[in-house]
Predict the structure.
Amino acid sequence: MMHYRRLGRTGLKVSEISLGAWITFGSQLDEQASITLLRAAYDQGINFFDNADMYADGMAEQVMGKAITGLPRQALVISSKLFFPTFPGPNGKGLSRKHIFDSIHATLRRLNTDYVDLYFCHRYDPDTPLEEVVRAMSDLVSQGKVMYWGTSRWSASQVTAAIAVARQINAVTPAMEQCRYNMLDRRSVEVDLAFAVKEFSLGLTTFSPLAYGLLSGKYNNGIPAGSRASFPEMAWVKDRLSDTEIARVRALGEVSAEIGLTPAQLAIAWILRRKEVSSVITGASRIEQLDENLQASEAVKLLTDEVLERIEKVLDNHPDED
Ligand code: NDP
């Protein structure tokens, strides 16, 4: 059964497990497979679907737009992001007021919807004054094109500065941050952002729960054909497959097997144990993966103190890599 959590201090409820479109929608998966995957996720209670203007050069939004056609818009939480280049030339990227407005208009057209629920500044833009960014994002909220705005991979001091500027100019403050969080990469949530999240009750929508698939154990004995690490353009995933990482994943596999979970379920449940995470954004290239990952919700109760300690021991064996 799906559980829903408040997005930080907002009144919005997001499914604690959500589905993202990166690499899969409009790219690794054809249109029909993407639509089938999103519908299967929706049928099992996922209400939050994550996207960005640059995923598959806009195709991910276009395909998601088709997938949500016919579903009740009120039941869906759709997100997008902007920052990375989507158009040639100096103004086709970044967080200038011009690019923010150009980008949201293109996103709404592709998604075929009147508004996005969550809109993220995909990275910090040192080339645009923070006040310009805050004002433009706040205006989008006032205009009803965006329900809540937030940041992705901004540092705690950048988020804190944005909140201070918004308060100064009486603008809408950012409500959420989107950062990476998984067993192999814990810093953002557990260290860097911890104070800001507590102080401002920011919502956290965390990504790459399986470290691009590594934590599912699928790479323990090589690279399966068709997996993410097998794509030439994803060579950096392959580069992460060090003996140290694989040893760690194998040891985690022993823990998961003992409590009757798959490694992927353990990895996602381990994230869900933290109440400040509003939603874990998962990715899936097959419905079977989605089905397996969704079981993580019920698995959280299996994470006793003893199990958590065992996991901690495995992860602590390699503190240098965090
Ligand atoms: P994961 O780390 O969970 O990796 C997902 C991939 O792992 C799948 O596409 C699949 O790849 C494989 N996989 C998933 N489940 C299983 C399973 N049970 N068994 C075996 N393999 C499995 O998440 P992502 O890195 O895809 O990130 C999720 C979402 O987060 C993205 O879609 C995006 O929306 C968001 N994101 C945001 C970023 C940001 O900067 N804000 C950055 C990155 C992601 P395959 O089958 O091809 O091997």
